[in-house]
Structure formats: C-alpha cells, structure tokens
C-alpha cells in the first residue's frame, strides 16, 4: 500500500514525501534497468535488485529454512521516498529525489550507506539495503540492513549546495523516523564521505538536542565528530584481509593454481575511490603488483606495476590518469578488467561483469569490493570455469564492521583503549622485569617498548576487523564445503540461517 503525504516545511516550498511498504516494482520492471553502467550486460539480464533476489533464491533453496521465513527475510520492510527543492546560485531551484530503504528490522538499528549518484533509484537502494542485511549477518554485526540514495551527481554541485541538500535530506529522515542511533544509522557510500556524515550528524543533533547518543546516528564521521580511527580505510582493508585469507585455503590454491602469498601477485582494480584506493594500497604495501586501475573516464595499465600514491597524486592534480608515467591509457576503461592478472577487484559499481564481457575475464580470483558487480549469469559462468569469486556480502563487510565499532564508541562515549592502555602497559612492564631478573639480561629500551606497547584505537580496530574477516571467511568456506556450493551461495546460506534464527526466536507480533 502506498501512502502519499504532502507537507509544507517552514521556509521552503512544498515537499512531496511518500512513505510506503515496499514491493512497489513489478517483477517485470526488475528486469529492465535504466542504468548507464550497463555496457557489460545483455538486455535480458536482471537489474541489480533482480540479481540480489536471484542470488538469494539460489541460496534459499538449500538453506533448510521454511518458505514463510524466507518470504519474510527477502521482502524489503519499508522505504521512504522524498522530493525537495534546492536553490542554485543563479536563483533557480532544482528538485532533488532521495530514498531510504530499510530492508530488515529484525535487529535494530538498521545500517547502510548513503549514495550520491545520478543513477540512484528506488530499486538500486532496495537492492543495496537487502545486501546490507545479509552482509551484517555474515560478519555477525547485530544490525538490520538499510540503504539511502540521493539522485544527483555531486560533481555538479558546490560544497554549499551539497551541504544544503544533505541537511535537507537528513531532515526528511528525522521527520519520518528513518534515522537515529537506535533506529537507522547511515554511513558513506559512493559519492559521500566523512564530510557528508558530519553534516548528517549535525542536522540530526539540531532536531534531537536531548539525545545524548546523537553521535551514533551516523558512522564514517571525521575523528573530531566522534569517528573511529580506521573507518576510512576499513572496507579496503577488509577486502585485503578477505582475499589474503582465501588464498591460504588449499582448495582455492588447487582450483586457481595460485600460491598463498600476496607478494608477487598481479592485481587489477576497477574504481579508484575510497574502497578501490585503500584496497590497492594494502595489496601494494604487502608486496602485490597493481598492474591496472580503471576509472569512469579511462583506465591505466602497466605490467611493471603502478605506484598507488604516485597515481593518486597525479589524478588529484590533473583530474585523470592520462599522462601518468609509462602507463598505457585505455579509452574504454571497462576493458582493463579483461587483462591478464591473478586477482581482479571490481570496486566501482554494480553490473560491471555480465554476459557481454564475462568470457574475457582472465583473473583467477575475483574479489567483489563493490556491491553487486557481477550478474547471476556471469557469476555462474565464472564458477563453471573454476574461478574463485569472493562475494560482496562477505568481502566488503569491513566497512560495516568498523562502523559497528564506531557506533559502539559513540554509545560508550569513550575512545577505545582510553581506560585500559596504561594499565596494560604497567602490567606487562612488571612481567618483563621478572623475565629480565630470571634471564639475567636487561632488555633494550626498544625491545621493552615493543613488548609493553598498549594498543592504540586504530590498532584495536584493525585487530577487530581482521578477526571478524577471518572468522566470516572460515564460516563461508565451511558452508561451501558442506553444501558443495560456491562461496556466494554459501555466504547467503549462512546469512539466511542466522536471520531466520533471530526472527524465529523473537516470535512474531501481530502476525
Ligand atoms: P567512491 O565514490 O569513493 O568511489 C567510486 C569510484 O568509482 C570513483 O572514483 C568513481 O569515479 C569510480 N567509478 C564510477 N563509475 C565507474 C566506472 N564505470 N568504471 C570505473 N570506475 C568508476 O565509492 P566507494 O565508497 O569507494 O564505493 C565503491 C563500491 O564499494 C560501491 O559499490 C559501494 O557500494 C561499495 N562499498 C563501499 C563501502 C564504503 O565503506 N565506502 C562499503 C562497502 C561497499
């Protein structure tokens, strides 16, 4: 049922807000996508939401969960759709569209990023929200899944306009109870970052001055606004940990012919934003060779390896990879994914590998840093060719994992390590003194410092993230072996079973 509300907000023009249960789109519509990023897909391949549902259905069949429970898990709980005007510098007004979908409220708050892109639509947001639910379950983060989107190209707006739009969108979320530390907690996604998260928190706080936990209404904030050290790089670091883990598995080594070392591996990354940049950086820091990077305009390819900091600086100064060192520039950037490499990391957008290009993919391991980069038919083909696909809901879960740590920090109102660091150092120091007495040798100041050093906040965050990723990879691997299936289906089976247990044990109100 769709409920349409027309409201007038003080000092602005009328704002049209629709708040409704989901299931608006017809199944047919789900198989027609309007995206311009469809070069990789045949027309009859499902759109992003259709892809997520197809993957879900495959896993559902072997999950052992009842049909009623599956129906309940699969449906998007609620969506908010808003339209509001924003004043441009020449005094004209443009109407901005925004969405927030809460896929599952089996655990609260709901959690999921906010995307600023001119390709945002309701179904994309629903697809991303669904993935968030499954992702949180895979890494045991006790949240439901949500996602938000504002349909605009951030490059076409000034910072002042973007701030007005972000604040206005947040106001809509506040008024409809779609944001709050116990309700729904956004985070960065494509086109947004710490700056936007700061504006969101400040706006929420203005509307909720009595909420002592206001900082927990959004994650991915700058440190000065209650952010946690390590959140910025968390998704890329999680991608690194996850791929490193899979390469250790004997069955993966057998299937791909690759060794377990990161050092010496050739890597191609598509998308050089937050996730792609950090993933590339961690791979390079650990000895891998980044030989290709794709962006929306061109791609850079150099079989001798690309220095990540140097190309980042070049692009920041010139706005493009063109003219960077000896790199070959590919005018059709998606083609960089077809080059020979050990590991391919799509880190840009959904639907980048479909039936039109899947047969040209040569990488042995494909690590989905982006959400939904491979269509179901392409995934099936890759798996049939013995390639290892590490799925988005597992591999890019580092972001939400560290968002969870940030939220915990906000609710506890204290930096990680503040209460115990010195205490632990003092304890270890006493222990070392005893060891020195028994060994008959004094440690050097450097040796002593290395042992007694108490963990800083970012070290605790990295450690929690690494532990989470290793555990989730192991669980996925175990289910893949048990069910004799691919890693995506296995991760989804784990998610479905965990969500079903939570909903079953909490009982059903008003059923
Ligand atoms: P971002 O906006 O920081 O970066 C995206 C990059 O991709 C930009 O540099 C953009 O220019 C580039 N790009 C856009 N279209 C492209 C194309 N067709 N080909 C190549 N490059 C293209 O966004 P991000 O936060 O890095 O997110 C990237 C992906 O990772 C998205 O799918 C997002 O949903 C997913 N993700 C992000 C996070 C996070 O913490 N930011 C967490 C989990 C998943």
Automatic annotation (TrEMBL):
Its main location: mitochondrion. The lineage of its organism: Eukaryota, Fungi, Fungi incertae sedis, Mucoromycota, Mortierellomycotina. The gene is GLUD1_2. The keyword Manganese does not apply. It holds the Pfam family ELFV_dehydrog. GO terms for cellular component: mitochondrion. Substrate binds at residues 111, 135, 403. Belongs to the Glu/Leu/Phe/Val dehydrogenases family. The active site is at residue 147. GO terms for molecular function: glutamate dehydrogenase (NAD+) activity; nucleotide binding. This is Glutamate dehydrogenase.
């Amino acid at each position: 049922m769709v409920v349409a509300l027309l409201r007038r907000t003080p000092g602005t023009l009328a704002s049209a807000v629709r708040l409704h249960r989901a299931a608006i789109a017809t199944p047919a519509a789900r198989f027609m996508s309007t995206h311009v990023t469809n070069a990789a897909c045949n027309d009859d391949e499902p759109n992003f939401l259709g892809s997520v549902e197809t993957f879900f259905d495959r896993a559902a069949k072997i999950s052992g969960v009842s049909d009623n429970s599956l129906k309940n898990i699969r449906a998007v709980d609620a969506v908010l759709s808003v339209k509001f005007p924003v004043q441009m510098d020449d005094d004209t007004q443009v109407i901005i569209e925004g969405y927030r979908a809460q896929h599952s409220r089996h655990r609260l708050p709901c959690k999921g990023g906010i995307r600023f892109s001119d390709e945002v639509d309701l179904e994309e947001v629903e697809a991303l929200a669904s993935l968030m639910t499954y992702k949180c379950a895979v890494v045991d983060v006790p949240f439901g899944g949500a996602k938000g989107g504002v349909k605009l190209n951030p490059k076409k707006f000034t910072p002042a306009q973007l701030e007005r739009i972000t604040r206005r969108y947040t106001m809509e979320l506040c008024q409809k109870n779609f944001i709050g530390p116990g309700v729904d907690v956004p985070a960065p996604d494509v086109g947004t970052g710490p700056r936007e998260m700061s504006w969101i928190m400040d706006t929420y706080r203005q509307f909720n001055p009595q909420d002592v936990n206001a900082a927990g209404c959004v994650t991915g904030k700058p440190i000065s606004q209650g952010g946690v050290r390590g959140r910025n790089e968390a998704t890329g670091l999680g991608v690194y940990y996850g791929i490193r883990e899979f390469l250790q598995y004997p069955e993966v080594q057998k299937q791909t012919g690759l060794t377990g070392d990161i050092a010496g591996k050739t890597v191609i990354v598509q998308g050089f934003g937050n996730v792609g940049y950090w993933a590339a950086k961690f791979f390079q820091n650990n000895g891998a060779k980044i030989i290709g990077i794709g962006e929306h305009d061109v791609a850079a390819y150099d079989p001798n390896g690309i220095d990540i900091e140097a190309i980042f600086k070049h692009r920041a100064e010139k706005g493009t990879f063109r003219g960077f060192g000896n790199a070959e520039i590919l005018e059709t950037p998606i083609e960089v994914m077809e080059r020979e490499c050990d590991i391919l990391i799509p880190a840009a957008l959904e639907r980048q590998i479909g039936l039109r290009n899947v047969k040209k993919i040569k990488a042995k391991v494909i690590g989905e840093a982006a959400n939904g980069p491979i269509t179901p038919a392409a995934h099936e083909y890759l798996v049939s060719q013995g390639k290892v696909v590490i799925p988005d809901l597992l591999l890019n879960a580092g972001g939400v994992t560290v968002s969870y740590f940030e939220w915990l920090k906000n609710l506890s109102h204290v930096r990680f390590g503040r209460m115990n660091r010195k205490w632990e150092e003092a304890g270890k120091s006493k222990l070392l003194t005893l060891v020195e007495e028994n060994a008959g040798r004094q440690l050097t100041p450097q040796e002593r410092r290395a042992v007694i050093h108490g963990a800083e906040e970012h070290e605790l965050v990295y450690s929690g993230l690494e532990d989470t990723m290793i555990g989730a990879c192991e669980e996925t691997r175990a289910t893949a072996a048990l069910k004799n299936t691919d890693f995506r289906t296995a991760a989804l089976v784990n998610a479905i079973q965990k969500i079903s247990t939570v909903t079953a044990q909490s009982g059903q109100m008003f059923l």
